[in-house]
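Researcher: Re-running this chain for the archive, since the previous output was lost when a drive failed. Same request as before.
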Amino acid sequence: MIQVPRAQPAHKMLTARLAELHRTLLNAQAIGHPAANNPYALLQAVMHDPAFAWLRSYSDLILRIDEAGAKGATPSPEAMQDFLAGATELTEGDNETQSKTRAFLLRRDVAQAHGALREVLADLRKSLSQ
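Model: Regenerated structure tokens:
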């Protein structure tokens, strides 16, 4: 599990937890896939195979947060609220991504990463509302 110091900016904490969950879900989805043992083939599968398309919601959000924090910038409070809403939708919403995520929650690594993300979301919601 990635350890993220609390001293990090909020957007970096959120990105780290999203990336951890994305990685564990990607590895879980790859089990049994012909490309699973070849990183280059797996990258191609992630980009083009419809079986991995649902993971793009995570990577798209990570990219948006990273772009907002590029070159040392700190995302605005409004942007952070948007990122929190997007991450909440991925973890708690009623959508395909959440449905697929839920299917992997019996795996310990996925459950831990999912729990860590939800914990950071709760902490950030609390700190941003003060």
